Amino acid sequence: MREHCRRKEHTPESENTGKTFACGEGYDMAIEKSLLTRIREKELEVGVRIDDIRVEADRMIDQARKEAQTITTSSEAEGRKAADDFLKREMKQIQTEAEQINAQAEKEVDSLRKKGEKNISAAVEKIVGIVLTG
Q1: How many CB atoms within 10 Å of residue 5?
Q2: Is the N or the C terminus of the chain less surrounded, counting Cβ atoms within 10 Å?
Q3: Domain segments of the chain: what residues?
Q4: Is 43:57 a contact under the CB 8 Å cutoff?
Q5: Of 5, 57, 59, which is closest to residue 31 (Cα–Cα)?
Q6: Which helix (H) or strand (E) holds 20?
């Protein structure tokens, strides 16, 4: 298969003829080199851009990882503090309830003791009466 080339003196009128020329017939190698050079330069530019973007993406990923680690560490610390605060509140409430239960129990003991003290003399008389008669 033959490659077709353009003549250096290519004109718009010659386009309408549909005529092409085989390589070597007035072909300008400088044009081809110039085009290839420009293509290669663009490829290099794109390659550099891709590398720059890749480096920036890696930097952004590293930054995101650091931020995620900071957020995780902060969240864990906040969670521990919240748990400690909750535990302290609950322990204080339990302590208050325990003190209330103890106070109620002491009241009941005092009430029973007073009732018992009132009935001691009557109980002693009954016991003495049972022992002496029996």
Answers
A1: 19
A2: N
A3: 4-133
A4: no
A5: 5
A6: none
CA distance readout (Å), 33 to 5, 25, 27, 61: 13, 17, 12, 41
Return all residues near 9 (Cβ < 8 A) that are at least 6 apart.
26
Q: How do residues 79-132 score in pLDDT, each as one tens digit?
A: 999 999 999 999 999 999 999 999 999 999 999 988 888 888 888 888 888 888
Are 7 and 26 within 8 A, CB to CB? Answer: yes
DSSP letters for 83-104: HHHHHHHHHHHHHHHHHHHHHH
Residue 26 structure tokens: 């007035």
What pLDDT is attached to residue 27?
A: 56
